[in-house]
Amino acid sequence: MLNQNVESLRPLFKPQTVAVLGASTSPYKIGYLQIKALLDGKFDGEIFPIHPTADEIAGLPCYPSLSATPKQVDLVIFCVGYDQIKDSLADCAKHGVKSAIIFASGFSEAGEEGQQLQQELAQLAKQYGIRVVGPNCVGLVNTSNGLIGTFTPSILTVPQNGKKGVGYISQSGAFGILTYMAAAKHGVLFNYFVSTGNEMESSFEDFVEYMIHDDETNVISGYLEGAKYPDQLKVLAKQALKKKKPIILMKTGRSDAGSRAAASHTGSLAGSDKVYDGFFRQHGIIRAEDFDDIVAFSKIFNPEKLPTGKNTVIITSSGGRGINEADRCEGYGLNIMELSEQTKTAIREYLPSYASVTNPIDLTAAASVANPEYYLYPMRALVNDPDVDNIIFTEFPYMWHADTPELQEFLTLCRNSNKTVLVCPFPLDEQMTYPAATSLLIENGISVIPCDLNPIRALSKLVDYSERVRLENAIADEQEAVTTPIDLSDIVTPGQLLSEAQASEVLQRYGIPTPQRFIATSVEQAIDQARVIGFPVVMKIDSPDIPHKTEADAIRLNLQNEADVAIAYDTIVTNAKNYKPDATINGVAVIEMLQPGVELIIGAHNDPTFGPVIMAGLGGIFVEVFKDVAFKVAPLTRHDAIDLFEQLKGNAILNGARGKAAVDKEALIDVLLKVSTLMTEQKDLIQELDINPIIAYEKGVKTADSMIATKQAAPTTSTTQLIGG
Amino acid sequence: MLNQNVESLRPLFKPQTVAVLGASTSPYKIGYLQIKALLDGKFDGEIFPIHPTADEIAGLPCYPSLSATPKQVDLVIFCVGYDQIKDSLADCAKHGVKSAIIFASGFSEAGEEGQQLQQELAQLAKQYGIRVVGPNCVGLVNTSNGLIGTFTPSILTVPQNGKKGVGYISQSGAFGILTYMAAAKHGVLFNYFVSTGNEMESSFEDFVEYMIHDDETNVISGYLEGAKYPDQLKVLAKQALKKKKPIILMKTGRSDAGSRAAASHTGSLAGSDKVYDGFFRQHGIIRAEDFDDIVAFSKIFNPEKLPTGKNTVIITSSGGRGINEADRCEGYGLNIMELSEQTKTAIREYLPSYASVTNPIDLTAAASVANPEYYLYPMRALVNDPDVDNIIFTEFPYMWHADTPELQEFLTLCRNSNKTVLVCPFPLDEQMTYPAATSLLIENGISVIPCDLNPIRALSKLVDYSERVRLENAIADEQEAVTTPIDLSDIVTPGQLLSEAQASEVLQRYGIPTPQRFIATSVEQAIDQARVIGFPVVMKIDSPDIPHKTEADAIRLNLQNEADVAIAYDTIVTNAKNYKPDATINGVAVIEMLQPGVELIIGAHNDPTFGPVIMAGLGGIFVEVFKDVAFKVAPLTRHDAIDLFEQLKGNAILNGARGKAAVDKEALIDVLLKVSTLMTEQKDLIQELDINPIIAYEKGVKTADSMIATKQAAPTTSTTQLIGG
């Protein structure tokens, strides 16, 4: 089945004919630079400069208008100003143009008038099926067909060879161009570069989808400031995982956390960055720390040979470099494994006695000075060790040339093994490496990445990615259950902060275990209820007019027997009446007193980008001092729920650290999934939800306190409440 | 007063005459390459090749022996093998040679015989006052006088110009050479490079001292695997701080933590790396994460203009770059400050309305394309804002040349201000930056460091360093008090793990508050003692033969009254006797029952490198799950003790987080200082000490449990004990 988005974008990426609107005879104008760029890039289609009077520009014949071009136009590049865009686009529509690049700015980024115009343009483009990059962008490049659809002259000053197969999509024009150029300088020429600009008609996600379906693309990379269509991105990420096409995105704005006013703890902790982290992890999108991750990852990625695990061996001729890279590996979560005795013995057979066969394997300076064959020898043993996943060389003998038998044996060993082999030379390529061997290494599936490009970090991301791909194939797709939303209209009034009793009732309807609670309107009733619940109990006033129960001295904890309950009832009612004589009093709540256990926080909020987002963390100081919480976007799968806990530093405690028993994780997972269902079903009604704490026991869990704010409810000060209610 | 170490090292760094032993006529031998390196380096003294028969080598006349040289020889470079070293050194001694470089390996790193020979050589060198670099090293370089005292030919292939004043000392030859070359490639030519090798006669610390006293050195950098003389390094670090000569060291081996068997919690947490971290922080030594920190720090460091604080402003023409660098700043602890209304108003006066005057200040693409003057305008306001400490430009207008009036005004503003100004262009120097302006910027005290060299990390390290320099000048030198060690011989037997009671007694002698405790030998005595202490109390058996009191069921907690005490006494004695009928029973300990408070761990251990090391952390999960502990080397100053707590993530809790009162920090500091005194005085006796937990209250602290292992005491399994004991 043809994908409509992909098919309609093809003329943008692979046009046969390109018209340049606003072509200029002046070599300093965009309208000239653009034509020159297409020529210098050796664009493999036809170029039609549109100019009212000129005969030729840069050697190409000109045409006075779109209607005068000799062929149907696939792509029009707009080198005209803001005020001519509307008429020009209408002209394109009239002539059946299939796609357009619009550089001009002044639209949605520049105020109301611009926004208005952009809307009109978008409508026009959609009506006539014109796919548009921009406006307010630096354009689009396809290095395979020489389509340099940008006026930026510098883009052609960098090397135009190097590994292809990497698509790059950027929400920042300047950052995009710089990354494109830096990557090319480091030997990675992107096959596509798209500056998305205002995403008037085509979005970041649309281009991701194009590249997922594009046979020339192996790696989809990008610079993201904010996803416009996270639901679409989620679906695409899943498709990309299935196809083993990694999506690696740099996302900025890490430091903008949580300045929004929020009623809940969850809301205040959920800076957009943490939610993005959760979303990326959830859907197997790799997060690049910086542009170097994209370059190094592109170099190291090979869909045919994904790393088999974290176990890593380092081979070096310098003890110092070995230790340093080992530090880095462990810092990024790779495991500098202990070698088996069998493997050590096998290595020792070939190496001189002074070489160290512990990991890192130190071949000593002899290897780099006089005995390059030492680089080969350990490989004979390592490729046969099933526990070894990755092998890193800190340098490679510069004496090895194509016809060296040792190099040939080395290449054969690597080619036939499932190990990921990586060479990370010091960044002094000219002097210190093995130009003769580099291309042979790369051809044989060995990555060569100078250590200042952070190859170890890229390797660790690749290892995680590979794990994710395996997981994706291992677990069955969970169908999102179609549920009939539970009716909450009798409890929840939009625009309201729910009372504790109401919040508790909402949780209960979703099957989340809450403490037993009754409302007593007499001492006798309170005693009966306490007997049903079992002692000890907690009692507190139930009145919509007394939100601050502690201030009213209308709470009593740890009531051990009937006498305690009787006294408490009278005291609470008296105190409440004294506190607020005209308060409506529903009665006194009698509530189960919870036993101590491991306290957690489970929360959710309705994120402006992602919709319902679920948070989990350990309670108390874990959340308040260490911010040890993790987020995922609802609806959660079972695996998401498990992984939310596994991300926590405090997970050890759930598993039973400090000699204590493990808590009931299944019950916790169940609550997370129910909160996910609740938030998904009620996303139009509920803005924020905190269960803080939820207490986990060896068997079972119980919510101790909860808070729910409906949408449009004004944030209020958080209510600190006591266990038991 | 002349410094003997410095004076005697001078002929090594600044020889007038150099002899090359083992000179060779073969261009592939070290004995030839070394002479060629001196010639190519344009060594400004005389070179005497020593060769038994040759007349000349590389155009220089040869001499058959040291005795035949026409002048006294300052430095001899040994290009001879292992077996000739001893005779040659003896020959040097005979001829009054002042210094030597020995490349050969096979000494202390290669087994017993080599160790033996090295010791003899060291003795000889010391006796005749010959300063020696090596053996097992790659040599020494002084770029100021062209002394290329290394056979490594590649060292001259990198740029031989660039900022000088950076000394570099390396305990790894290969890493050292690579760093030297990478730095030169990035425009920092070290003035000195020393590969210390086996440090037979001259140590890493000796070279640090030389550079502290050397007028040509502004920054002392290095690669350290392990300090041989930490006491000397500590004294030198202080001198360097006073002179504002930063010492920046890369220290590897981060991941080698805590594999040693250890009796104490502290011992098992104190991987050497964490102790180095503490030592460096304590003494103002900057820790480089990688070689790039050394290069970037060297570029940014200016002793005349240290950063005034953390408040940082970013100026950019690309929103994306601005956000990205802001993320980095915050990640490294710099503060992306909010600009004052006054400053914003002043900036708005000059900039167009679409530019963003929030921080990062986004000048928009207009600045980089057509309006370079925008880069100047905000500076007019920022240099006058006393809250601004650092100003970072993500790029700089490439249109500005020396005669641009805007550039001239820019330079004047920077020169006359106390702000640290940093330009961090994307690493595409050739295409994207301002070659015409760069040297002018640098001359005017503005650093230009491409962003792939981690300039932001270097800036944050510089900010910390500046803070440390200010502190060093602000606090009076604390004299290390000369104390008479307290006699512990009646309690402590070497080779022993102390009983809880003994450990408690040791702490008490040093004035550390321990719970009240008595030994009762009758019920009546126990009741009397409990009355003195005050209820509730804890009771437990006191017997050298029953270390596992819980197993013996010989502990009772929370005894509320005399009746409880009476029953407990009898039960404990009965249970103990049943558990071990032949046990010697001293009696039953009656101990104050401590109230809950904030639990901390304070510990110490005798580090093989640093001697007594003190650790502090919050107790329980803080230490067990988050490893939230910090180390410093004893003896501690008061500032060290304060800083130990400030380093903790959990410090917020000590200061009264979660609505609770702050704990008595003064009392905690007092305990730390007392533990420091204890460990310093008893360092020959005590190996490890844990106070875990120590309980801190609003007023006062009290140790709840303690463990002391003497030196040579075999590590035993850790004893988990209860509060009150």
Automatic annotation (TrEMBL), chains A, B:
Residues 504-540 form the ATP-grasp domain. Keywords: ATP-binding, Ligase, Nucleotide-binding. InterPro entries: Acyl-CoA_Synth/Transferase (IPR051538), ATP-grasp (IPR011761), ATP_grasp_subdomain_1 (IPR013815), CoA-bd (IPR003781), Ligase_CoA_dom (IPR043938), NAD(P)-bd_dom_sf (IPR036291), Succ_CoA_lig_flav_dom (IPR032875), Succinyl-CoA_synth-like (IPR016102). SMART domains: CoA_binding. GO terms for molecular function: acetate-CoA ligase (ADP-forming) activity; ATP binding; metal ion binding. The keyword ATP-binding applies. In the N-terminal section; belongs to the acetate CoA ligase alpha subunit family. This is Acetyl-CoA synthetase. It comes from Caryophanon tenue.
